[in-house]
Amino acid sequence: MSLLHHDSLVLKFAPDLRDEWLTLMPFTDVIKSYSAGPQPQSVFYDKDEPQYISLDFSIWKNGECLSLRLFKITTEGVTLETDDGDFTSSLRQLHDFLRQLPREPHMFAN
């Protein structure tokens, strides 16, 4: 299912980040896991948490996170969360990361 189909997730839980969300549309083929929030139905819900979009590129095996790699977009900017800590990033750096990810061969054909 495409990210555009899930636009309602962002519009519902992170409407202030719609413009940032739209910049991710060229990368729908490499974004496999994402979320938006905060979501009131979540057990981790914090009403004071700012709106966010998260893109998860972590390495998982048998339901266990082996290597945390999560980009989190807020109105304050972009952060990369890793096992080694949180690092300041930017939309431009996130786009650069997404551009270099491997794509399926059919993405390069008409």
Structural overview:
The protein is α+β, with helices and mostly antiparallel strands and 110 residues long. It has three helices and seven strands. The two termini are 21 Å apart. The mean pLDDT is 91.
Layout of strands and helices, then pairs:
Layout: H1 7-13, H2 18-22, E1 34-37, E2 52-56, E3 59-61, E4 64-67, E5 69-74, E6 77-82, E7 85-89, H3 91-100
Antiparallel strand pairs: 1-2, 2-5, 3-4, 5-6, 6-7
Brief descriptors of the model:
two-stranded antiparallel ribbon; 3 helices; five-stranded antiparallel β-sheet; alpha+beta; 110 residues
From N to C, what is the helix and strand string?
A: HHEEEEEEEH
Class computed from helices, strands and strand pairing? alpha+beta
**Cross-sheet strand order for the largest sheet:** 1-2-5-6-7
Shape: globular
Q: Helix fraction?
A: 10-25%
**Taking Cα atoms only, what radius of gyration do you get, to the nearest Å?**
14 Å
Query: What's the rounded overall pLDDT mean?
Result: 91
Total strands: the figure is 7
Counting structural domains, the number is 1
Uncertain ranges: none
